[in-house]
Design a protein that fits this description.
167 residues; alpha+beta; Immunoglobulin-like; 2 domains; five-stranded antiparallel sheet; four-stranded antiparallel sheet; 2 helices; 41% helix; 35% strand
Length: 167
């Protein structure tokens, strides 16, 4: 009976640890710098990781991706050409994306004879702040794991005491 209880406790700890790790990963993914820009017809959503921007361009009418456009991104006063990817997104790689602070972003879309400009603002945190966020997430993860371990330990001791009282 003791080995069965121990196995249950270990299984519960593993499940809780995996759930906490998944929550920490979701929090880290949500913390990536992001910019949205829209016009009457188009929506551009861009996510920045290090010095690379991944841009998804879609039509507002049906949310269909726009694959056949030429896109230029004006960032911090400099124009950068994007590369069309096979999944329908566009990528841009420049060292300007690693600079901290707010930056005006303009997506210049050329699709056939149509030309549209979509404007947004990108807020990039300082590198020091990102390191603090990572250590904070790890600290929070271990705090939750410790809390669950203590709770499970108390439950195990309570059940053990109850069984000995019944004997």
């Amino acid at each position: 009976m003791k080995s069965r209880d121990s196995a249950r406790i270990l299984f519960a700890l593993a499940v809780l640890g995996a759930a906490a790790a998944t929550a920490a990963a979701a929090t880290a993914a949500a913390a990536l710098p992001r910019v949205e820009a829209r016009s009457d017809d188009l929506l551009a959503v861009a996510v920045v990781r290090d010095d690379k921007m991944i841009i998804h361009l879609s039509r507002l009418l049906d949310n269909a991706p726009v694959r056949d456009a030429a896109m230029t991104v004006v960032l911090r006063g400099a124009a950068h050409a994007t590369i069309a990817e096979t999944d329908g997104s566009y990528t841009l790689q420049t060292k300007d994306l690693a600079l901290p602070g707010a930056a005006a972003v303009e997506f210049q879309i050329n699709q056939g004879a149509a030309h549209e400009n979509l404007k947004g603002t990108l807020e990039i945190a300082a590198a020091g702040g990102q390191a603090d966020d990572k250590s904070s997430n790890a600290r929070q993860l271990w705090w939750w794991v410790l809390n669950f371990a203590v709770c499970i330990g108390f439950l195990w001791l309570f059940s053990r005491r109850r069984k000995s009282a019944q004997s």
